[in-house]
């Protein structure tokens, strides 16, 4: 399984996931830079993602929704803040209604995804920082760790196919 470590720190307001993939950095980068590939791995297997908009440039947005096994749709967005292809990108990640208007009652995280080469493999570090401990706890209670682990663990199989 690609995920090697998951830690959360309510004092530092962070959720950090570390993973290692059996592919070079450039290949892992493409998973995030291509909306059709991102759809295959952004949601956990039981909540597949549909990417509606994908402007992967600073100031751009990625709008998406996930569909539950019962057919319910849950929307979210990224607001891209920095891109250093293929090494890292940063974005604000939030919940939205189905017209992709941010939901102010849900937490927003500031994220930095970093990819480094290690012996032909990629080590990925995903760090999400929340505005409050309550916001971080809310997403933890919603199953963020389990959902993120399930989503990230799909990447090796996807890129091998």
From TrEMBL:
InterPro entries: ASHA1/2-like_C, START-like_dom_sf. Residues 22-158 form the Activator of Hsp90 ATPase homologue 1/2-like C-terminal domain. Belongs to the AHA1 family. This is SRPBCC domain-containing protein. It comes from Pseudonocardia xinjiangensis.
